[in-house]
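Hi all, posting the design record for the shared folder.

TITLE: backbone redesign
STEP: 1 of 1
STRUCTURE INPUT:
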């Protein structure tokens, strides 16, 4: 173990030896220099393949690169600009609902519930050109929306943890698909069959949306204009790009991207937004400063903000950055070495025999945990106040220790959105969603803490609960009309 805890040798389930890594140099090799050796963990790939199909999260190597090459242009700044009206209309519906809830005075509101519904609708409309939820209080939403929300909790119940670790990775390699399905049907697990049924609903919905989108595109511009998003949604752009490329994705891969987009964009964004609202409720001065910035920029924009106006919300941006630094929605991930590899360290560590080691030989098949949390919170890099939430740190130049560490993150010297060939492809999309949501909600409402004690659980994705109710995800915040 290193003195600063950036390299730790530990033991996983059933005695598996693991390296726990937050050392910047080691992470640079894992995520960038030697990324072809340090592949996604087999269980991660298996889970995503079985749950969502052949999307970005379930593929590696040349196939992953091919998918990513086609999808990268879809997330360009030019396309993000076209998303603004969709984001504004969607969050505007949430604002109307919350205004109705608070019409008689301050009201305790579960912000995690509303951020989850809103994030799903945002990716539904802008990603697929499809509405899952009107965001009205009494609207249960599309059945697929509930399935997306419940699939991770369902996959973490009872026998599913064992099946995901030791059986399903092998099942996922069998083919064709009807054989895999037959095996799953024969396994006597109620938990597994519950997950299977949710996947069926998600897949059927994806096929329905895809068929509608293809029909509209083949019918011409007028049919496209009648669709949600006017044909500027991610799926429409992806289908068009796929028709033009010499090496197109097959239909199952496109369907896999749909499910993957919804899953990847919903819980992470709702977790991040919920955490920001929670922190702003605790820090009214910061909240007031953002609100004033929003109103100043909005007034200068004539009451209708565009992409560049959201980019001008510099103090809001510091709050988002600092929250994503200290509280990343995903706190760790795993990699597995596909061959023997040397892992170097930025600072020497002490071996079990007391000798200093500047590198170590990692045998093929070894697993490694990338600690996003520890990398983002390093006192050596960020200073003695690294564990404090201080948005103003981003208003000054970053410490030289950060710049010289060469942290391999794609965003702000952080690992929140990872780095390398498997970095989050939609990180700019996520940031824009958050800015539009914060601008709309903070302009209209004041947030204050609930008297209930809130705890944050670390899982696949960080989520909030109330003390005494650990199994129920919720974030109560007192909402009132802002002056």
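Okay, here is what came back for every position:
SEQUENCE:
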């Amino acid at each position: 173990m290193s003195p600063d805890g950036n390299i730790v040798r530990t033991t996983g389930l059933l005695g598996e030896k693991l390296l726990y890594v937050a050392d910047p140099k080691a992470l640079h090799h894992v995520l960038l220099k030697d990324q072809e050796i340090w592949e996604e963990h087999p269980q991660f790939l298996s889970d995503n393949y079985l749950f969502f199909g052949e999307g970005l999260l379930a593929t590696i190597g040349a196939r992953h690169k091919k998918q990513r090459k086609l999808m990268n242009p879809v997330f360009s700044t030019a396309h993000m600009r076209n998303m603004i009206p969709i984001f504004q209309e969607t969050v505007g519906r949430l604002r109307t609902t919350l205004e109705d809830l608070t019409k008689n005075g301050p009201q305790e509101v579960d912000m995690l519930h509303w951020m989850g519904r809103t994030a799903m609708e945002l990716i539904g409309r802008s990603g697929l050109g499809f509405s899952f939820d009107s965001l009205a209080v009494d609207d249960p939403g599309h059945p697929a929306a509930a399935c997306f929300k419940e699939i991770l909790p369902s996959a973490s119940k009872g026998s599913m943890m064992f099946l995901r670790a030791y059986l399903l990775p092998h099942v996922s390699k069998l083919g064709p698909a009807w054989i895999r399905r037959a095996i799953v049907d024969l396994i006597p697990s109620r938990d597994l069959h519950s997950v299977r049924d949710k996947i069926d609903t998600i897949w059927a919905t994806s096929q329905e949306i895809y068929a509608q989108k293809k029909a509209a595109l083949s019918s011409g511009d007028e049919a496209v204009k009648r669709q949600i998003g006017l044909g500027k949604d991610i799926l429409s752009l992806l289908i068009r790009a796929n028709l033009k490329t010499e090496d197109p994705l097959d239909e199952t891969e496109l369907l896999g991207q749909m499910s993957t987009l919804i899953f990847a964009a919903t819980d992470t964004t709702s977790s991040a937004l919920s955490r920001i609202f929670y922190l702003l409720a605790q820090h009214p001065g910061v909240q007031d400063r953002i609100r004033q910035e929003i109103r100043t920029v909005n007034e200068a924009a004539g009451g209708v903000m565009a992409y560049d106006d959201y980019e001008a919300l510099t103090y809001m941006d510091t709050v988002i950055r600092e929250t994503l630094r200290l509280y990343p929605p995903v706190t760790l991930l795993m990699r597995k070495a596909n061959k023997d590899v040397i892992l170097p360290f930025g600072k020497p560590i002490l071996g079990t025999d007391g000798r200093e080691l500047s590198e170590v030989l990692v045998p093929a098949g070894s697993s490694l945990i990338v600690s996003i949390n520890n990398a983002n919170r390093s006192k050596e890099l960020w200073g003695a106040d690294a564990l404090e939430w201080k948005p103003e740190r981003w208003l000054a130049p970053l410490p030289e220790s950060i710049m010289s560490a060469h942290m391999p993150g794609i965003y702000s010297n952080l690992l929140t959105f990872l780095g390398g060939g498997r970095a989050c492809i939609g990180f700019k999309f996520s940031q824009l969603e958050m800015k539009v949501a914060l601008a709309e909600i903070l302009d209209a409402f004041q947030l204050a803490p609930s008297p209930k004690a809130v705890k944050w659980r670390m899982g696949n994705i960080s989520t909030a609960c109330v003390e005494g109710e650990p199994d129920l995800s919720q974030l109560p915040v007192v909402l009132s009309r802002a002056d």
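COMMENT: The domain at 7-481 is CATH 1.10.630.10 (Cytochrome p450).
Let me know if anyone wants the other runs.
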